[in-house]
Automatic annotation (TrEMBL):
Residues 1-19 form the signal peptide. It comes from the Bacteria. This is MORN repeat protein. Keywords: Signal.
Amino acid sequence: MRKLFLLIGISTQILVANAGCKQPHTEQSTTQQNNSDPAVVDTTAFRLKEVRAFKADNEKNEWWVNKQDSNYYIIKQYRNDILVSFTTYKNKVRNGYTLICYEDGKKMLEGMLVDGKKEGMWKGYDKKGNLASIRTLKADVILEERFLSKDSTDKQ
């Protein structure tokens, strides 16, 4: 049985521009960068609070707390040293940028959450890494949806 942990937090100071998933895990680094996808998620306003490793799943969770306000957190989940999710929290609720990746490290889904609900533009990617869908949402309600990738069989 797999253990799940729920944490709180994140900062509005996160800077995100197409952050890629596939990257080596480094505990010392506070900035993530992917050479094939030169985007940056700036976590310099945060400090690493705790790392938990799960040997059975070869999984590691990092909890980053905002240096100014401990109610803001980032949770980064790694599997086989590949980032598979990046979630922001504020006051125990998912708030801010969220990124979910396939097991091979390619993006699956990315977008913003406000009070735990999907808000604004959400992008979905097929397993080849192609942009497959764009959805515009307001409080988890889909306002507009476009499917772009012709060879994608994945459903978001």
